[in-house]
């Protein structure tokens, strides 16, 4: 049921993206906003459902396999979208995008994060799967299972490694690139998922753990917003 739900989200988003391209081609900025909104919604909604499946036995094999598979699926079905505020900073830094366009994309990503969380809560209330009732009742899941300093360093390091890899594989054939990126994300989740969740995406982190940001805003913004963005800037500075 959970897999069917995620596939349905991917199909629905694909249809909406195709419709947006046809109807909004005369308004490129608004079209870019809508495409980024839809793409980030897909990533956040599917990852919210994947987090529910994280405790499925055998652990962590099922979770890692699904992480790899859906990361590949996102890469193949969402070309041209970053779905990550950190990725939107790169063209701003290089002068290839205006602050207005970049701000619109980041706004779309955080709006999609909220919409995905609201949508998943609605789906979880239907209790199609037994684990949905537990997910609905859960407040802050406290993804940080280590000190704040260590969590900050882990998210910073993972962000640097991820962004460096993205820059290195830009010229690889897209069908190979999505597998390389998916393999890297899966490895990072395996290495640090039990400590911080290995998210390194501010919008996705906000969608997965909104209650944590509400309870301890400074701590979680430091680890899940500032650390990934700082990692992006360090990567761009190195290049």
Automatic annotation (TrEMBL):
A single GO cellular-component term from the record reads: membrane
Q: What name does this protein carry?
A: AQP11 protein
> MF terms per GO, please?
channel activity
- Signal peptide residue numbers: 1-20
Keywords attached to this entry:
Membrane, Signal, Transmembrane, Transmembrane helix
Q: Which family does it belong to?
A: Belongs to the MIP/aquaporin (TC 1.A.8) family. AQP11/AQP12 subfamily.
Origin species: Odontophorus gujanensis
Membrane topology recorded in Swiss-Prot or TrEMBL? Multi-pass membrane protein
> Which PANTHER family does the UniProt entry name for this protein?
AQUAPORIN (PTHR21191), AQUAPORIN-11 (PTHR21191:SF7)
Under Pfam families, the record lists: MIP
- Location(s), subcellular: Membrane
**Is rRNA processing included in the keywords of this UniProt record?**
no
Q: Which residues cross the membrane?
A: 148-169, 181-205, 217-238
Keyword RNA-binding: yes or no? no
Gene name of the record: Aqp11
């Amino acid at each position: 049921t959970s897999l069917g739900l995620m596939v349905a989200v991917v199909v629905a988003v694909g249809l909406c993206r195709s419709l947006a391209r046809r109807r909004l081609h005369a308004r490129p900025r608004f079209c870019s906003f809508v495409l980024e909104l839809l793409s980030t919604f897909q990533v956040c909604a599917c990852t919210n459902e994947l987090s529910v499946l994280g405790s499925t036995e055998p652990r962590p094999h099922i979770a890692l396999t699904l992480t790899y598979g859906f990361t590949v699926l996102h890469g193949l079905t969402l070309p041209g979208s970053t779905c990550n505020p950190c990725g939107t900073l790169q063209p701003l830094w290089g002068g290839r995008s205006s602050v207005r366009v970049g701000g619109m994309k980041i706004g779309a990503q955080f709006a999609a994060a909220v919409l995905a969380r609201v949508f998943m809560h609605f789906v979880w209330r239907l209790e199609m799967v037994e684990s949905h009732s537990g997910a609905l009742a859960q407040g802050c899941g406290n993804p940080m299972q280590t000190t704040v300093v260590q969590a900050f360093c882990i998210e910073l390091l993972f962000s640097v490694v991820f962004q460096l890899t993205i820059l290195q594989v830009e010229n690889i054939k897209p069908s190979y690139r999505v597998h390389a990126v998916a393999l890297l994300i899966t490895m990072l989740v395996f290495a640090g998922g039990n400590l911080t969740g290995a998210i390194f995406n501010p919008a996705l982190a906000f969608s997965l753990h909104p209650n944590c940001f509400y309870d301890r805003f400074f701590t979680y913004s430091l680890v899940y917003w500032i650390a990934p963005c700082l990692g992006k800037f360090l990567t761009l500075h190195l290049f």
